[in-house]
């Protein structure tokens, strides 16, 4: 199901918003309780979901639809405030999980008042749910404060058996298994998925215990038994090796899983160093990070303020383009009172939000490479109609600096095939960017520079959570014995210092503590110049080096030596297994995990727009090259990025690639 198909079915009255959202709830319920994917921090109660959907149905019947997102089931990451549906964004951290719950009403001198209009709501949630009419299905899990790339650092949910944070699992192996079951029983033919009647029947027959329509009870029972055996890590289960539990990537792990499994058609998340693009590559979805500052960050829990960017994950590039247009279009209220500008100009409460785009529906910027998108791609009845050579005016850069020696052959082959696809099918001109123009040491240096800067900003941003101003407040006596209090470093602390230490030790998980301590270290007087300032200089040089390779998005720059976009892999690794009795997760080197973002971080440092597109394994002439029955070719993502403000161009090229 795509956003365009759902909107068309709504308008034709073949399905209702309530039916689609009920089906999405069933999928989410099945994913959490049967497949144990652990993608949701909170599922919105069904009655609230149906209430939102019924309002969308009424608007559509009356011809007052708020756009293509009206009635579409969506999810939002746990570090984003969504008002009455999630009173306090906890960023999956224990330090924000206690003592902050709000009641439905509060008392005043005038009596009881509803909190519905008083709770904390982010600008992006207000835009998505109120202005665009989307239906919130739930809040998705994440690595604590966005610190992680594997989806294993949840600071709230615990796996009691293995005494560790409960991970979020990749749905792709189980989706492949489901497809195999359905095809073997002739319940599903891929060509049927293009038929609207197939989806109508699927929604009508959806149940919480079997939303995928597996009619053979024995097949369904076998599948669920395989899931349970994998989760328990039973050594005598041969299915454990065939269908392992894999990491979905992070930190927006739950957002990617919800979209990949189908319970959400649009998942809002945040991307700091690759938190949307890495999980989208590993879950065969589309992850879009706009130019830094495009969307207001008001209502988002801060991690690295100079890099945090709101973006989203969708199933297809067409869905991503629709979301981009709807979230960026001028609101009806703005048009009614004669005002102009994008939504973040009118509604933003984030003073750091910047506007790179003159108009969300056109992308000319007075530049030949930014023609109005409708000259290349037309929506006819929500069906994509593409010009014969839609990228004939586009130069695609292939930077040698990103061709690191660690790149696996299968990903290198996918990179080459993707580039040839843009050239042969889209008509793009391929341009090799040599080491003399962009050196690979800069790409390697970006990784270390990023983590120095990220840890430093995290140390500063998270200093507010001391339990006295913000966060939980625990009793130090419950954590420290009398011996601890009178010996070692604790004996030199004042009562206030011991209190703050206890609050932060109890509230922050291991990865968060590690990064806060690292950030405090690089900000110290003896390391500030050698570490922090050096990283800041490296960031500026990396950003400038990349920016100089692009044609300008704001002038009529026609330099034939420069490129419009660049194409690189999203990740150099495949998702690791998480199901070996928990051993893999316990032995994961936290610093080695940093390298998962080596291909996404240079782009984040420059604030460039970027989109990760899943490789179509069926159309690539490459072998799986990997053992077992998991087709890891479906867990490869290709990343397209361009200069700041060229978001429409990035989506246009991404659509042709997919």
Question: Care to describe what's here?
Answer:
- The chain has 658 residues and is an alpha+beta fold.
- The protein folds into three domains: 3-335, Amidase signature (AS) enzymes (Alpha-Beta Complex); 377-438 and 550-657, Amidase signature (AS) domain (Amidase signature (AS) enzymes); 449-532, no CATH class.
- The chain has helices at residues 3-11, 17-33, 46-61, 123-131, 172-184, 196-204, 217-232, 239-242, 253-261, 277-282, 317-328, 332-336, 343-347, 409-424, 440-461, 482-486, 495-507, 510-522, 528-547, 583-586, 601-606, 647-657, and strands at 40-43, 73-77, 105-108, 111-114, 135-140, 158-159, 164-165, 266-271, 286-289, 309-314, 377-380, 383-386, 395-399, 429-433, 565-569, 610-614, 637-642.
- Helix 14 (409-424) links the parallel strand 13 (395-399) and strand 14.
- It is globular, with a radius of gyration of 24 Å.
- The model is unreliable at 99-117, 235-240, 331-346, 357-385 and 580-586 (pLDDT under 50).
- Residues 38-171, 247-330, 375-651 form the Amidase domain.
- It comes from Discostella pseudostelligera.
- InterPro entries: Amidase, Amidase_CS, Amidase_dom, AS_sf.
Strand order of the largest sheet: 1-5-2-8-10-9-16-17-15-13-14
Question: Approximately what portion of the residues adopt beta-strand conformation?
Answer: 5-15%
Low-confidence stretches: 99-117, 235-240, 331-346, 357-385, 580-586
Number of strands: 17
Helix/strand structural class = alpha+beta
Provide the number of structural domains: 3
**End-to-end CA span:** 16 Å
Query: Tell me about the biggest sheet?
Result: 11 strands, mixed
Question: What is the class of the largest domain in the CATH system?
Answer: Alpha Beta
Individual helix count: 22
Q: Name the shape in a single word.
A: globular
Helix content: 25-40%
On the 0 to 100 scale, the average pLDDT is: 81
CATH topology call of the largest domain: Amidase signature (AS) enzymes
Can you tell me the CATH architecture of the largest domain? Alpha-Beta Complex
**Cα-atom Rg, whole angstroms?**
24 Å
Under CATH, the homologous superfamily of the largest domain reads Amidase signature (AS) domain
């Amino acid at each position: 199901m795509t956003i365009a198909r759902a909107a068309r079915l709504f308008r034709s009255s073949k399905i209702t918003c309530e039916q689609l959202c009920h089906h999405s709830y069933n999928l989410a319920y099945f994913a959490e309780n049967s497949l144990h994917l652990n993608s949701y921090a909170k599922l919105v109660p069904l009655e609230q979901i149906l209430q939102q959907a019924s309002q969308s149905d009424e608007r559509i019947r009356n011809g007052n639809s708020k756009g293509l997102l009206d009635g579409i089931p969506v999810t939002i990451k746990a570090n984003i405030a969504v008002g009455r549906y999630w009173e306090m964004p906890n960023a999956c951290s224990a330090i924000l999980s206690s003592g902050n719950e709000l009641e439905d009403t509060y008392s005043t001198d005038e009596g009881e008042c509803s909190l519905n209009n008083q709770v904390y709501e982010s600008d992006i949630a207000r835009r998505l749910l109120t202005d665009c009419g989307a239906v919130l299905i739930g809040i998705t899990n994440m690595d604590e404060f966005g610190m992680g790339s594997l989806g294993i650092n949840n600071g709230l949910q615990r796996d009691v058996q293995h005494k560790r944070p409960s991970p979020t699992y990749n749905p792709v192996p189980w989706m492949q298994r489901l497809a195999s079951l359905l095809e073997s029983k002739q319940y599903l033919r891929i060509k049927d998925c293009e038929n609207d009647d197939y989806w109508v029947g699927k929604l009508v027959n959806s149940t919480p215990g079997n939303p995928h329509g597996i009619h053979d009870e024995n097949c369904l029972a076998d599948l669920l038994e395989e899931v349970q055996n994998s989760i328990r890590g039973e050594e005598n289960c041969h299915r454990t090796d065939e269908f392992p539990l894999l990491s979905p990537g992070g930190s927006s792990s739950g957002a990617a899983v919800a979209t990949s499994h189908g319970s959400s058609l649009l998942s809002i998340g945040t991307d700091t160093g690759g938190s949307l693009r890495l999980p989208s590559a590993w879950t065969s979805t589309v992850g879009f990070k706009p130019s830094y500052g495009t969307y207001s960050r008001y209502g988002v829990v801060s991690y690295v303020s100079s890099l945090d960017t709101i973006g989203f994950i969708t199933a297809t590039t067409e869905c991503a383009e629709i979301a981009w247009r709807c979230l960026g279009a001028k609101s009806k209220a703005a048009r009614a009172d004669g005002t102009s500008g994008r939504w973040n100009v009118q509604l933003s409460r984030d003073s750091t939000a910047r506007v790179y785009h003159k108009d969300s529906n056109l992308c000319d910027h007075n530049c030949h490479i930014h023609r109005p998108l409708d000259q290349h791609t037309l929506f006819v009845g929500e069906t994509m109609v593409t010009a014969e050579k839609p990228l004939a005016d586009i130069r695609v850069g292939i930077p040698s600096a990103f061709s690191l020696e660690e790149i696996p052959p299968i990903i290198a082959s996918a990179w080459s095939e993707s580039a040839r696809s843009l050239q042969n099918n889209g008509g793009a001109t391929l341009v090799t960017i040599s080491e003399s123009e962009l050196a690979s040491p800069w790409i390697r240096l970006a990784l270390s520079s990023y983590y120095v800067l990220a840890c430093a900003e995290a140390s500063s941003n998270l200093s507010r959570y001391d339990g006295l101003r913000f966060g939980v407040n625990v009793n130090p006596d419950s954590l420290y014995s009398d011996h601890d209090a009178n010996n070692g470093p604790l004996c030199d602390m004042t009562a206030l210092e011991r209190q703050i230490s206890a609050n932060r030790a109890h509230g922050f998980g291991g990865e968060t503590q590690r990064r806060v301590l690292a950030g405090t270290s690089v900000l110290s007087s003896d390391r500030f110049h050698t570490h922090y300032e050096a990283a800041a200089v490296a960031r500026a040089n990396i950003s400038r080096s990349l920016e100089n390779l692009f044609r300008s998005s704001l002038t009529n720059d026609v330099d034939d030596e420069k490129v419009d976009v660049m194409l690189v892999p999203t990740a150099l690794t495949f998702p690791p297994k998480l199901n070996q009795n928990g051993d893999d997760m316990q032995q994961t080197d936290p610093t080695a995990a940093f390298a998962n973002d080596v291909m996404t971080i240079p782009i984040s440092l420059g604030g460039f727009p970027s989109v990760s597109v899943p490789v179509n394994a069926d159309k690539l002439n490459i072998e799986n090259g990997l053992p077992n029955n998991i087709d890891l070719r479906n867990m490869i993502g290709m990343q397209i990025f361009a200069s700041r403000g060229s978001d429409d161009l990035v989506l246009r090229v991404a659509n042709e690639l997919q």
